[in-house]
Backbone:
């Protein structure tokens, strides 16, 4: 067994998008955002530098979780909420595989919420794509943990009484080392995020805002409609100031007095480009990333997309094997026979 | 018994599907708390409760999974409400932990399982009756509960009311075991006036704090009374083996005392609990034992068999658990054969075989589920049993 994942790139064939299509025609509703996501994933995979047979897709249950059927990879459609746990077991035993998880907002954050936070905390190299349509699609339109407060759905016909999760903020709080957000209709942006996610080593969350035209149509219109999106979207780019708006004059400033992020306009009230926060996803401390993640919940602020955090830390599987190697080094003859024969064994007379 | 709360009951004749009839039965029975997690083909029950509850003073909350929903249910019940949760196979598997907790803590509550074909995710939108043994034995340890099997939307309403009543009478989880077809079929459902619906209220104790013991059977009964928070009682409820005060007591005699009372409150009251529908048994040589949607298919098969001259009668299980042992035993002494069709590969038939002990022939008519039997297959089994 490979313990470091170094030997998987040998003699890598040149792939095209078609190599990642299973030949089964995807069956989502017409206009479903899931189509564009799978399209981008299939486009991104040829460039990740991993053999197709070493890429695994693991899903839970939901419309989104049908994904592995349509991918020409090792695929597993597991149980509702359990994909992260299934994937963790696989990754620890086979660290050389590139393991992707495909999940929905209900799958990952309701029934799988506990598994989700622990997968993020452990920093196993698992790449989770969370299709967030803010609704239960497969079961036909019930409230989800990302549905807005007051949302009317089939199980909240008079309005939802509970507050939603913000998946990137949750993942950051749980210790994820790579956290990003993109949108189903922003193909080029998604491609960039997927590439960065593939390159990262460690727990990875990519939240994809996904439209469900049947049960929650227009959930992201405020970010995708041409007339309004310039003022509503904040594209975070590494090393660049966090500016947005039609003419790029609005920006995000860190206010040291209130210890909060605020929206300012360059050229107004003495604000210059220097005042604008420069995006740095490599900051080890996740505090600023957390503040940015939470902007989407605050009225008057734009919704950030891009990479919130991208920090390299030893992964759980690396540490697992380091610990094993360390233990072996201390006891150089730790062969199975010796272990069985030595120490606490006795003979039954 | 008092009469149904007049504020919520949907009195009148309606076209309802089985799932919605369960929701209406729950409201008529006084259920005012429900917890759930969406799963096909059961979600309609809670969707209707979510719609209706605000107008009758009820609360529904969708939880993060069935583990949460099924224990939130117990929270609601101990808060004083009549409570239910609703699910199907995969969710039912997750709920097993809390069915056990409800049994040992003697929590009155109702679980609906609209059965779909399994194992695992199986056929989410297609019927089965494959959870019948899980209903009886699914949680660990020995325990007894009550399980009912409606075969029509009308019975979904009626048995839901019964389920809530028996949950209160015996302080026990009651399972309403529908199947996808019964859950989704639409038929006429007559909902009587409040005055005609018998509703069993929770038996709140009249004993003062100090004297009252939460797990001591009430006089002349095997079932203890209850209190609710705010009534001034200090109580302790645990999933550990406990004494009459509810305090952990992990000794064999205490375990035996607790276990045998939990067991006997159902087993010794079986005559009060068990319901079945008998038809044409007087001259029957063959008896078809069926339940749920399969009983509707079996009716057709019995007509066909009678047309071929076979004296066939029907014993329809309305209560699956406790099983009508006495009745089947009596029948086994006079008939030539039992025929047991069910949408599984042989579950309740095991119970018939156990009781019959080889005295008469028992013919299983298994089906993998996903659809219902072809009636001809059952007819052939009936005819074949005596020829
Ligand atoms: C234990 C269990 N409970 C419930 C279900 C039913 N179920 C299937 S998918 C789903 C939710 C899907 O929502 P989401 O995860 O947001 O995915 P989407 O369909 O929106 O992509 C539910 C409740 C199940 N399969 N298993
Ligand atoms: S229900 Fe919604 S999420 Fe599911 S396939 Fe249809 S459009 Fe997509
Ligand atoms: Mg969803």
Residues:
């Amino acid at each position: 067994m490979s313990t470091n994942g170094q030997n998987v790139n040998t003699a890598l064939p040149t792939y095209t998008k078609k190599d990642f299509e299973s030949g089964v025609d995807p069956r989502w509703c017409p206009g479903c955002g899931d189509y564009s996501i799978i399209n981008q994933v299939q486009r991104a995979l040829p460039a990740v530098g991993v053999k197709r047979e070493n890429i695994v897709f693991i899903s839970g249950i939901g419309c989104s979780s049908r994904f592995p059927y349509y991918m020409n990879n090792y695929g597993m459609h597991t149980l509702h909420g359990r994909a992260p746990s299934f994937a963790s077991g696989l990754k620890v035993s086979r660290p050389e595989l590139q393991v992707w998880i495909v999940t929905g907002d209900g799958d990952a954050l309701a029934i799988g919420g506990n598994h989700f936070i622990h997968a993020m905390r452990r920093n196993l190299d698992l790449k989770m794509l969370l299709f967030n349509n803010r609704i239960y699609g497969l079961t036909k339109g019930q409230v989800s943990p990302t549905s807005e407060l007051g949302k009317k759905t089939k199980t909240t016909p008079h309005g939802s009484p509970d507050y939603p999760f913000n998946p990137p903020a949750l993942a950051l709080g749980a210790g994820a080392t790579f956290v990003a957000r993109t949108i189903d209709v922003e193909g080029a942006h998604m491609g960039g995020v997927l590439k960065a996610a593939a390159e990262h080593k460690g727990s990875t969350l990519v939240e994809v805002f996904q439209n469900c035209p049947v049960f929650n149509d227009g959930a992201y219109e405020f970010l995708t409609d041409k007339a309004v999106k310039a003022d509503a979207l904040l594209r975070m780019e590494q090393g660049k100031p966090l500016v947005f708006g039609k003419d790029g004059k609005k920006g995000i400033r860190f206010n040291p007095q209130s210890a909060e992020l605020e929206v300012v306009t360059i050229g107004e009230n003495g604000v210059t480009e220097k005042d604008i926060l420069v995006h740095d996803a490599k900051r080890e401390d996740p505090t600023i990333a957390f503040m940015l993640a939470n902007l989407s919940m605050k009225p008057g602020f734009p919704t950030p997309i891009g990479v919130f955090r991208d920090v390299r830390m030893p992964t759980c599987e690396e540490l697992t094997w380091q610990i094993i190697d360390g233990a072996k080094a201390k006891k150089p003859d730790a062969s199975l026979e010796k272990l069985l024969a030595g120490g606490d064994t006795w003979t039954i007379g | 018994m008092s009469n149904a709360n007049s504020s919520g009951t949907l009195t009148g004749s309606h076209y309802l599907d089985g799932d919605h009839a369960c929701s209406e039965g729950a409201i008529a029975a006084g259920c005012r708390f429900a917890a759930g997690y969406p799963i096909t083909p059961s979600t309609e029950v809670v969707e209707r409760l979510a719609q209706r509850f605000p107008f009758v003073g009820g609360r529904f909350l969708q939880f993060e999974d069935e583990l949460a929903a099924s224990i939130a249910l117990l929270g609601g019940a101990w808060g004083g409400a009549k409570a239910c949760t609703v699910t199907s196979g995969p969710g039912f598997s997750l709920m097993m932990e809390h069915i056990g907790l409800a049994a040992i803590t003697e929590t009155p509550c109702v679980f609906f399982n609209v059965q779909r074909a399994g194992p695992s995710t199986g056929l989410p939108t297609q019927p089965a009756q494959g959870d019948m043994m899980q209903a009886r034995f699914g949680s660990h340890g020995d325990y007894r509960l009550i399980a009912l099997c409606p075969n029509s939307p009308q019975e979904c309403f009626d048995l839901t009311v019964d389920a809530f009543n028996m949950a209160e009478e015996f302080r026990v989880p009651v399972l309403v075991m529908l199947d996808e077809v019964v859950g989704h079929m639409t038929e006429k459902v007559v909902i009587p006036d409040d005055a005609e619906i018998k509703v069993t209220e929770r038996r709140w104790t009249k004993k003062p704090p100090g004297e009252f013991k939460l797990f001591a059977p009430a006089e002349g009964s095997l079932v203890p009374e209850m209190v609710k928070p705010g009534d001034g009682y200090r109580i302790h409820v645990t999933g550990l083996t406990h004494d009459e005060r509810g305090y952990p007591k992990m000794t064999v005699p205490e375990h035996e005392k607790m276990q045998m009372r939990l067991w006997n409150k159902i087993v010794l009251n079986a005559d009060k609990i068990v319901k079945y529908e008998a038809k044409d048994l007087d001259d029957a040589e063959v008896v078809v034992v069926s339940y749920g949607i399969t009983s509707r298919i079996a009716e057709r098969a019995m007509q066909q068999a009678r047309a071929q001259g076979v004296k066939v009668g029907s014993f329809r299980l309305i209560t699956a658990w406790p099983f009508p042992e006495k009745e089947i035993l009596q029948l086994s002494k006079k008939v030539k054969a039992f025929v047991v069709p069910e949408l599984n590969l042989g579950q309740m038939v095991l119970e018939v075989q156990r009781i019959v002990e080889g005295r008469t022939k028992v013919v299983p008519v298994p089906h993998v589920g996903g659809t219902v039997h072809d009636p001809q297959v059952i007819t052939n089994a009936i005819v074949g049993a005596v020829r």
About this structure: Residues 1-8 of chain A have pLDDT under 50 and may be disordered.
